[in-house]
Write the structure tokens for this entry.
Amino acid sequence: MNSTVFITGASSGIGKSAAEKFAAAGCRLILCARNEQKITELSKSLQERFHVPVHAFALDVRDKEAVDAAVKGLPEAFSDIDVLVNNAGLALGLEKLQDNLVNDWEEMIATNVTGLLYVTRAVLPTMLRRRQGHIINIGSIAGIHAYPNGAVYCATKAAVKTLSDGLRQDLVETPIRVTNIQPGMTETNFSIVRFHGDVERANKVYQGIEPLTGDDIADIIFYATSAPPHVQICEITVTPTCQATGNVAFKTVRP
Ligand code: NDP
Ligand code: 8X3
């Protein structure tokens, strides 16, 4: 695949798996996350293993000026972005709304919604000029139905769904495609981040189930981008077979 692919939040989990998948297909990669060391190490490893060009840098998607500067400052060989994977995101806390930390709400909204918008807005002008592009947003089944103790995270992913639907309409006269991928339980650093580093609590989330992996979601992202140009996959919802909704999962072990 001769494409330039920009993945946000590529230092771990779904974003890292997607970077590996597109690198294996021979794509040029633009990768970012806040952790400079991790993103630099991934970049080196992908260049060594797959011999593809990679431009990697530390970026906080919540910082509009930094997002604009990073996109404007792309080296020429990377400036024509074909695929944007808006993956950077997080959940913080799993408590009743009345008990949640307000700082956690603010970080989730700023990252999952506003940050996704900043990156999209920065990348769109070139896609529109070239009349070519594909924007993949990583939503969640949490955006379809809220679950208890997750109201704000679920609301951010509902926003990702609605923004994807709206953007798809705003781009309907162009060849640019918009896909919203809505995964269920996927074992990454997600729960460790959600529980502020409590690994024991995070591990319990996946006890007694066979969760999805980052590689499972990377396969789906790649599938959506591999469809012929006249085929737009609007939305894909994917769960582990033992999960029906954000709030209904069958566990063989009760935590
Ligand atoms: P991880 O925690 O493994 O990865 C999250 C990535 O996002 C990391 O690379 C992290 O890097 C990056 N990130 C977080 N905040 C920022 C920021 N402000 N600016 C730039 N990068 C940032 O979790 P997942 O791979 O699971 O999560 C990826 C996406 O998938 C998220 O949007 C999440 O909501 C979504 N999702 C996850 C599911 C799951 O069950 N795991 C299910 C459904 C959706 P760094 O910390 O270095 O910035
Ligand atoms: C994360 C999926 O089901 O853990 O977006 O909320 S779930």
